[in-house]
């Protein structure tokens, strides 16, 4: 009996492992492939983790060698594999982290659907609570469904904008303390000092969060912040091992460190909670965020352990959301101001003009347009969170794609915030002027607005911006009192709007369609482009230079193929090897129908153009058609048809590539040439064409 139970348990475990590690991932991959979504081939248990690590190591070597160009393309260094896969597989592709299947999305319309989806069927990925449980627990940043709604109902009211406005004084006090310490350090070093601002800004951010949310100063929660920082670093070492089954249970050095920090942080938070409960035994109308968490923990919580976990998890979420992201965002904002003295002076002048020596209040901060532009631009270039991840808790549809249950959706914020197709050729440059009319006046504002909202964990909780108010208060004092530079003191001029040939507003890749054809023409798929050019050259040489004929080549190829296969099939009887049967080829009927319909549409379009030109209603179109056909007839005398096709192929594979590389110079001279041609044409039109005795021209002039 015991043996039977053991066998049942063993086979049940094996079946569960087979289903979760092999059957389920393959089923999800197959469902996505049927919709045309492909990606790098995953390895068993590891997925694409090895490729990602290899790509990151190569990017680190690239940076350490000092080979990175002067731009703000941080995504190419942090997540280089996504750019490589996107060039290879398109805007939507799939990859795997262990047995977790992920769809990478950068199509703007699909991103918009995902970021604005309010259904509880689209939730936080399950791996976050599992793999990052020690850091995030089951708090508001990782929970789903009714439990998430319960937590949001508790936390959101305390972080609405009206509440945040009341925190301005707290932010101002912390900012004044920080800047006073900087001023003292500058005076001690004779008026000029190199200050490492990163730890100071973390302390500033922690002080604000502690006072505003927990009613204490930074010193009381300092140990929690430092241990959370250590826990965050320990967890980051396991990022690329996400999804590998059972790895979080292995007692490795990193896991043991993580478990120890988790216990210490839990004990410290509960200690502060206990002290607060003792000090505020009497009921009070003034409730801070911690008090709201304590009251919410007693609702629907049956055990003391569940109550403690609810309190600890949400406190950690609030600490991380308000402390880490604000400090990082403020650091980048100050760095960009230091590296751009022109904008630094603009912000300083604005602050001096609005505040006039007074401490800023909420109304003054609202008037700081230049500072708002700088903050928006810094959040665009360096968003607080690089990746937004969601999981389909039920089968869902976004755009034309059906997302199966269990598939994760990833949107890379750094990629969309610097995509040249969305932001223009200066997308990697610091240019706050693009926000001169605010975010909503931009055609693509939803990408910035929604992604900034979702990439900031504070926004994840409430949908209102506490981060921006803290940055403005800090930058106000800093801008009004001192100037700063980076280690390499330089200035970057604001790029002027560039003109392109034929009023082109998109990059050449998008102009060519943005798909595989554009990749081939621009040599982004070098093997295919090189093979196409080599194949065209071989064909041209065979038929044009060697005098070979197409029918002869086809017959000779068939003779050789049939002879080899015939002799091999007979030889296999003597060498005891089975003959590999040739596959049966059946061309799909649907494909031929599409080709026929496409040919019909093209013929219909061509006949329509011919009829329109020949009808005599438009002299300009008639002259264009006659001139074009005349040019083609002249070119046809110089080359054979095959040579002409070969030359066109070579031009498509070279002109597009060199134009993308030297487009600025070509556009400059091309615009000059086009203006001159238009000028000459207008003179011909005025002196010759308008004087021709053609009735419809006179009628059009009278109209």
In short:
By secondary structure, the chain is mainly alpha-helical. 64% of the residues lie in helices and 4% in strands.
Topology (elements, then pairings):
Elements: H1 2-33, H2 49-64, H3 75-78, H4 80-89, E1 92-97, E2 100-105, H5 108-116, E3 122-123, H6 126-131, H7 133-136, H8 145-155, H9 161-165, H10 168-188, H11 197-214, H12 218-236, H13 253-279, H14 289-297, H15 304-339, H16 341-355, H17 362-366, H18 369-381, E4 387-392, E5 396-398, E6 401-403, E7 408-412, H19 413-417, H20 420-423, H21 445-455, H22 457-462, H23 467-481, H24 508-511, H25 516-521, H26 526-545, H27 550-571, H28 589-614, H29 619-638, H30 641-661, H31 663-687, H32 695-702
Which oligomerization state do the chains in this entry correspond to?
Answer: single chain
Give the overall shape, derived from the CA principal axes: globular
Roughly what percent helix? 55-70%
CATH topology of one domain: Cytochrome p450
Report mean pLDDT, rounded to a whole number: 76
CATH architecture of one domain: Orthogonal Bundle
Q: Order of strands side by side in the largest beta sheet?
A: 1-2-7-4-3
């Amino acid at each position: 009996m015991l043996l039977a139970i053991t066998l049942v348990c063993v086979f049940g475990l094996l079946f569960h492992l087979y289903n979760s590690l092999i059957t389920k991932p393959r089923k999800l991959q197959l469902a996505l492939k049927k919709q045309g979504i492909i990606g790098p081939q995953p390895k068993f248990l590891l997925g694409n983790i090895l490729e990602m690590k290899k790509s990151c190591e190569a990017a680190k070597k690239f940076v350490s060698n000092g080979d990175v160009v002067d731009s703000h393309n941080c995504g190419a260094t942090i997540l280089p594999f996504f750019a490589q896969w996107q060039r290879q597989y398109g805007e939507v592709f799939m990859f795997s982290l262990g047995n977790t299947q992920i769809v990478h999305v950068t199509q703007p319309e699909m991103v918009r659907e995902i970021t604005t989806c309010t259904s509880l069927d689209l939730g936080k990925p399950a791996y976050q609570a599992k793999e990052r449980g020690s850091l995030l627990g089951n708090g508001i940043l990782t929970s789903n469904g009714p439990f998430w709604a319960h937590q949001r109902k508790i936390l959101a009211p305390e972080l609405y904008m009206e509440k945040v406005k009341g925190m301005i004084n707290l932010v101002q006090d912390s900012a004044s303390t920080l800047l006073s310490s900087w001023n003292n350090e500058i005076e001690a070093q004779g008026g000029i000092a190199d200050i490492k601002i990163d730890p100071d800004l973390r302390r500033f951010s922690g002080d604000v969060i502690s006072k505003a949310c927990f009613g204490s100063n930074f010193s009381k929660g300092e140990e929690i912040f430092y241990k959370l920082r250590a826990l965050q670093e320990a967890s980051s070492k396991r990022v690329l091992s996400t999804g590998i089954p059972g790895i979080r249970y292995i007692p490795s050095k990193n896991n043991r460190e993580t478990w120890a920090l988790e216990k210490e942080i839990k004990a410290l938070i509960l200690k502060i909670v206990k002290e607060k409960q003792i000090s505020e035994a009497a009921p009070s109308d003034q409730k801070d965020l911690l008090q709201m968490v304590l009251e919410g923990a007693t609702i629907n919580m049956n055990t003391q352990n569940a109550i403690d976990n609810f309190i600890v998890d949400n406190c950690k979420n609030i600490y991380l959301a308000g402390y880490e992201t604000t400090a990082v965002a403020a650091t980048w904002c100050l760095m960009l101001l230091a590296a751009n003295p022109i904008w630094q002076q603009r912000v300083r002048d604005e602050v001096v003009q609005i505040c006039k020596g007074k401490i800023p209040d909420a109304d003054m901060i609202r008037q700081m347009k230049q500072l708002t532009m700088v903050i928006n631009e810094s959040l665009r270039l360096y968003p607080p969170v690089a990746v937004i991840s969601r999981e389909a808790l039920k089968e869902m549809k976004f755009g034309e794609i059906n997302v199966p249950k269990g598939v994760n959706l990833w949107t890379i914020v750094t990629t969309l915030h610097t995509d040249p197709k969305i932001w223009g050729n200066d997308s990697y440059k610091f240019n706050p002027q693009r926000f001169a009319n605010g975010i909503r006046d931009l055609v693509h504002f939803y990408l910035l607005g929604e992604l900034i909202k979702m990439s900031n964990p504070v926004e994840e909780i409430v949908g209102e911006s506490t981060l921006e108010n803290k940055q403005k208060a800090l930058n106000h004092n800093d801008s009004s009192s001192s100037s700063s530079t980076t280690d390499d003191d330089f200035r970057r001029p604001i790029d002027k709007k560039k003109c392109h040939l034929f009023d082109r507003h998109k990059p050449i890749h998008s102009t060519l369609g943005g798909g595989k054809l554009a990749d081939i023409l621009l040599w982004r798929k070098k093997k295919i482009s090189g093979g196409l050019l080599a194949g065209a050259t071989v064909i041209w040489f065979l038929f044009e230079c060697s005098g070979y004929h197409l029918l002869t080549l086809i017959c000779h190829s068939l003779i050789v193929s049939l002879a080899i296969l015939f002799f091999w099939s007979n030889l296999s009887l003597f060498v005891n090897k089975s003959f590999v049967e040739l596959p049966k080829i059946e061309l799909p009927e649907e494909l031929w129908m599409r080709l026929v319909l496409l040919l019909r549409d093209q013929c219909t379009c061509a006949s329509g153009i011919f009829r329109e030109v020949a009808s005599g209603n438009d002299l300009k179109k008639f002259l264009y058609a006659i001139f074009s056909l005349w040019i083609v007839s002249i070119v046809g005398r110089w080359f054979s048809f095959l040579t002409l096709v070969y030359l066109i192929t070579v031009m498509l594979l070279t002109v597009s590539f060199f134009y993308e590389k030297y487009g600025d110079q070509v556009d400059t001279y091309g615009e000059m040439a086009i203006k001159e041609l238009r000028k000459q044409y207008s003179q011909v039109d005025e002196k010759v064409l308008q004087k021709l005795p053609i009735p419809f021209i006179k009628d059009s002039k009278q109209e």
